[in-house]
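Possible race condition, two jobs.
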Amino acid sequence: MGRAGGAGAAGRGSFHDGLDRPAATRRQAMTSAASPSTMKLLIATRNQGKIREMRDLFAGLPFDLAFPPDRFLERLPDEPDLERGTSFAENAVAKARYFAKRA
């Protein structure tokens, strides 16, 4: 995933929701960095309560969870602007795109 551009930057090579890629390419991208039985997920939250909850929810499932602090992604000044959507879903998408670019 690309590292260039700000939270709102989109373009060739940057993170998208994946719908613009063929299904085979999406499957390959999802599994290429992980073992055949484990998918790596970067969960875009720094909230310790949410981190505990996500670890509990995913316990025993074939996912290798990581959070921004686990990947030494320091907090940057533009992070507070990520939660300006009108719904939880909009905020989640904004954070997912932002951290995907930084990971």
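Job #2 (started ~2 s after job #1):
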Amino acid sequence: MTSTKSFIVFSLLAVSCLCQRPSYAGRRPIGYPILGETPISTSNDELGDGLVTEVPKTTERIPIEALGDINLVKRLYKIPLDKQPYWFINWKALDEHRNKPQTYPLRPNNYIHRIHKSNDTVGYK
């Protein structure tokens, strides 16, 4: 009788512990990616000049959706406006807005008064 009670208590404890995380979420905790073994070396010969390499850069601004393909952007400029994809039309409008932002003139603040410090004002000695 005591073994069945012990088994029931143990099984309830095990089930309550396993139910804390849903089965579809996996067994590992969230936020810790699986990392392979990385060799630890500090020699500069293996690193080389990896931090100083020249990366080819385009001088033309292209949308992120083009994934760096300048030929795609040139082809999209050639097709009619009603056939261009929405992300390309939207990018052109946003790029024009970024190049010419709307500015507003600043007005003087009426709540800030200039304090003039001179010898003949009352309270300053």
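Helices lie at 2-18, 44-47, 70-78, 86-99.
Logs attached separately.
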